[in-house]
Write a structure and sequence with these properties.
seven-stranded antiparallel beta sheet, about 15% helix
């Protein structure tokens, strides 16, 4: 275990600051259906929005950075009608990342259940990404809703690093990200689990 135990408490402050990432049609100014409640870090900006038939990606970076030049990035993804469960999604992500890294390790993160929806998480260490020639550390959480599979991840882009020498960033940064991701959740207007003021 690189990381030890995580404090998985969801703070009230985090819940208050959650923003709604909406992926369904707004009808009469009221959003309906299934939503992913999450938020990029405060002050970050949306730099890329890619919506296709069955998948949507939203990428956020710190102010002043871009899709080409970034040190950290949060990506929120929705896959419509996706039947795979979180563990399979993470397995595929790990397989793909391992192909692109000259040195790679991963470890699962034990996120607690999310209102009955299956959830899973992972941390990835990539000593040197062959495409960017940078080291990368990524924390991912996935939640399988009724209609969609959602994922939120944060990646740090660093100078190439040696995995045998431990974490390339402070463990506190990872702990804070895990706590932040613990506040993400799926809600559904059909189940009455969404905030009452949604869409107002």
């Amino acid at each position: 275990m690189w990381l030890g135990k995580f404090d998985m408490k969801i703070t009230i402050a985090l819940l208050i600051t959650l923003a709604i990432i909406s992926f369904t049609t707004v009808v009469a100014d009221k959003p309906k259906g299934e939503f992913f409640l999450a938020a990029p870090p405060k002050g970050w900006t949306l730099v890329d929005k890619d919506t296709q038939l069955h998948i949507a990606n939203f990428k956020f970076v710190p102010a002043g950075e871009s899709t080409q030049q970034w040190s950290q990035m949060v990506t929120i993804t929705k896959m419509t009608g996706e039947s795979m469960l979180p563990d399979k999604y993470l397995n595929q992500a790990a397989e793909q990342k391992a192909k692109n890294c000259t040195d790679y390790q991963n470890q699962r993160l034990p996120f607690k259940g999310s209102d009955g929806y299956p959830t899973d998480g992972m941390i990835e260490l990539c000593g040197n990404n062959k495409t960017s020639s940078k080291g990368e550390l990524t924390v991912i959480r996935t939640i399988k809703g009724t209609d969609h599979l959602f994922a939120i991840q944060k990646t740090w882009r660093l100078q190439p690093f040696d995995l045998s020498k431990g974490l390339p960033i402070p463990k506190q940064d990872i702990d804070e990200t895990v706590l932040y991701f613990a506040g993400a959740k799926v809600c559904d207007t059909r189940r009455g689990t969404c905030p009452a003021n949604m869409g107002k």
